[in-house]
């Protein structure tokens, strides 16, 4: 642990203090070739940390694009289903959470989805009414 402590408390501050960072804007133009070479490692380190942070944030934002359909028939451009009213005997529960294994009919997958995400989605229930 002493090794890490020494690097953080002594080595890095001494290294940064030895860098040829000018006090004024014009000082940057007076730096020599060796001075510019000395600035390359810390510049690469800061750039690498910035890039890694950007990629991490970008991945987090990409994961939250708001996609509704997580995996049902992703090989086609648009998922469209037709259900004839005549085929419904009494009622049918249609999935709205896109997690059903029996798509387009609800299989109760919204329960786990709601518990996991805090959502409150449920099925669309379509009833067939007979004319009286």
Number of strands: 2
- Order of strands across the main sheet: 1-2
Strand content: 5-15%
Rounded mean pLDDT is 87
Distance between the termini: 84 Å
How much helical structure, as a percent, in the residues?
Answer: 40-55%
SSE pattern: HHEHE
What oligomeric assembly is this protein in?
single chain
Shape: elongated
Q: What class do helices, strands and sheet pairing give?
A: mainly alpha
Which segments are poorly predicted (pLDDT under 50) over 5 or more consecutive residues? none
What composes the largest sheet? 2 strands, antiparallel
Radius of gyration: 30 Å
| Total of DSSP H or I helical runs spanning 4+ residues | 3
Label this structure with key terms.
single chain; about 130 residues; mainly alpha; elongated
Helix-strand layout with pairing:
Elements: H1 2-18, H2 33-63, E1 91-94, H3 110-117, E2 124-127
Antiparallel strand pairs: 1-2
Could you write a compact summary of the structure shown?
The protein is mainly α and 132 residues long.
Textual characterization of the structure:
By secondary structure, the chain is mainly alpha-helical. The protein has helices at residues 2-18, 33-63, 110-117, and strands at 91-94, 124-127. The longest helix is centred in the middle third of the chain and has 31 residues, at 33-63.
